[in-house]
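Try this one yourself first.
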């Protein structure tokens, strides 16, 4: 108390001497703490996981906003605000036309998705009324989905955002629909700014973990191409495949000041890498490239290394972890880094080098005095042939447990793989009814893939019970296609059948893969199944070093059906 009293006294004495930072903690009656800093004009409501429901709960925060002169930044992260609380804050913001940074991540925990748009609208109205000009808007870690974007669409197209430089929409669950709404709003803002004589010069755009997929990525690519001022693009873990990557690549070429490019945990493949390689020559300001876990593969890595060979003197980090690279392609990458004087880190972990390959790569880096910038190779998966033999050994071992942790796309989920499934007898109607109960109303793609495997374990093209199984499969997959989650379901299914490696090394794919994969072909032929998802399947079914190597007939059957659909 004495400290706070002294701080307040000094603040009143020093007045406008902003060079002296003064801060104090103010405890409210609802135990919400605010930190006030004069030097940078920032008011922070400390993250305490509080539910702020009423106008009374938020009264002290509102008072601090009202009393704060020259408010430049407001951070509300780490507590949960109701619509009433947001309305009160929005009214207080109408008096602060100097506000530049709205740091509003993680502020709607436990709120219904239908409540969040209204709360965002209240906050937006306050900013619009104030006449503020934002430089940064951070709404990350608010799971509001497409409806949340609708709540701030008016804000994004208003004069408040003509000056925006930093936009962060990480982990919002936008999906394809939300990505398209956001893209339209940004295009409108760009046009409105230009019509009013202003320049819309967005520099940083982050939208990781949003399930944007190809369509969402293509919509954003249109925005990036028109803007042309981006210095950072971060779109990790969005289920984007080579079509979406190619669209993004074209847009990247228009942003010649780009310094940071993060597309990790999407699926580039060789096609996506070739598209990016074509524009890398125009991106000489790149400092960080992150393509971790992107299925770059050896040919894709060679295309990238060739494009990076000359120039790119500002490059500081290159991340290519977990991409199925062989030693030859990794050496080409290493050689392409030889003339990069600013390089601080080359990450090649989790690929397929083996002990001999690791030594070759280290010798290559050491010969140019760059060994110290080579990241750890402790998770190397061994040479391709060696890895295949290990997989065969693992599949021949008896199962000791029916519980395994499936880790994919950054999430950990306990799933039950029923290793006592009958692969000879078709699933009964009674069992299908039981599985329907397990599905529930809104099952995740992970749960659907697990149940799908059991329902189709003994599936064949000639089963007499196929009509019932087909009906059940439609019930599983049609909603996922409608919600844009079908590619996540495919990822999970390919992990369970061994066509994609799980990040959990203890995870063992099912032994009998023919039933689920043949059943998946039925799904591909249905009207609700999207074309780009079929292309994804072709990519993975065509790959070598999978269980399909020992079942050539099944691979041919799958590819023939996929290409003829």
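Now uncover the answer:
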């Amino acid at each position: 108390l004495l400290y706070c009293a002294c701080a307040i006294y000094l603040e009143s004495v020093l007045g406008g001497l902003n060079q002296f930072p003064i801060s104090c903690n103010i405890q409210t009656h609802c135990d919400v703490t605010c930190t006030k800093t004069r030097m940078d004009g920032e008011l922070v409501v400390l993250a305490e996981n509080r539910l702020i429901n009423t106008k009374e709960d938020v009264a002290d925060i509102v008072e601090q906003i009202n009393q704060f002169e020259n408010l430049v930044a407001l951070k509300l992260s780490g507590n949960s605000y109701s619509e009433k609380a947001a309305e009160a804050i929005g009214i207080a913001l109408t008096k602060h036309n100097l506000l530049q940074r709205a740091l509003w991540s993680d502020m709607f925990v436990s709120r219904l998705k239908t409540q969040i748009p209204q709360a965002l609208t209240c906050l937006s109205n306050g900013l619009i009324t104030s006449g503020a000009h934002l430089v940064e808007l951070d709404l990350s870690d608010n799971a509001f989905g497409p409806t949340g974007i609708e709540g701030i669409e008016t804000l994004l197209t208003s004069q408040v955002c003509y000056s925006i430089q930093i936009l962060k929409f990480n982990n919002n669950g936008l999906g394809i629909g939300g990505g398209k709404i956001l893209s339209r709003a940004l295009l409108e803002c760009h046009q409105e700014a230009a019509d009013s004589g202003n320049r819309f010069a967005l520099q940083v755009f982050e939208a990781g973990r949003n399930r944007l997929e190809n369509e969402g990525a293509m919509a954003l690519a249109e925005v990036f191409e028109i803007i042309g001022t981006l210095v950072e693009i971060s779109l990790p873990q969005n289920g984007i495949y080579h079509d979406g990557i190619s669209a993004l690549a074209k847009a990247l070429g228009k942003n010649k000041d780009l310094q940071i490019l993060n597309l990790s945990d999407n699926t580039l493949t060789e096609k996506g890498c070739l598209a990016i390689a074509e524009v890398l020559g125009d991106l000489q300001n790149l400092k960080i490239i992150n393509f971790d876990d992107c299925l770059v593969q050896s040919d894709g890595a060679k295309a990238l290394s060739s494009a990076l060979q000359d120039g790119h003197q500002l490059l500081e980090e290159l991340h290519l972890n977990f991409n199925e690279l062989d030693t030859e392609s990794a050496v080409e990458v290493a050689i392409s880094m030889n003339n990069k004087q600013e390089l601080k880190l080359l990450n090649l972990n989790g690929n397929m080098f083996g002990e001999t390959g690791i030594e070759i790569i280290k010798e290559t880096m050491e010969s140019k005095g760059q060994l110290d910038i080579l990241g750890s190779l402790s998770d190397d998966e061994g040479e391709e042939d060696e890895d295949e033999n290990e997989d065969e050994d693992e599949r021949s071992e008896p199962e000791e447990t029916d519980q395994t942790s499936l880790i994919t796309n950054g999430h950990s989920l306990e799933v039950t793989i029923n290793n006592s499934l009958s692969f000879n007898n078709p699933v009964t109607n009674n069992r299908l009814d039981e599985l329907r109960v397990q599905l529930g109303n809104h099952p995740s793609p992970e749960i659907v893939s697990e149940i799908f495997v059991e329902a189709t374990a003994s599936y064949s093209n000639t089963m007499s019970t196929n009509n019932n199984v087909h009906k059940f499969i439609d019930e599983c997959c049609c909603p996922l296609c409608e919600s844009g989650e079908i590619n996540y379901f495919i990822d999970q299914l390919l992990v369970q059948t061994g066509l994609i490696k799980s990040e959990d090394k203890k995870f063992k794919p099912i032994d009998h893969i023919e039933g689920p994969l043949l059943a998946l072909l039925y799904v591909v032929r249905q009207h609700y199944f999207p074309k780009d998802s079929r292309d994804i399947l072709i990519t993975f079914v065509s790959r070598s070093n999978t269980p399909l190597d020992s079942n050539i007939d099944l691979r041919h059957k799958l590819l023939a059906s996929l290409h003829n659909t």
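Discussion: Residues 1-30, 386-424 have pLDDT under 50 and may be disordered. The radius of gyration is 27 Å.
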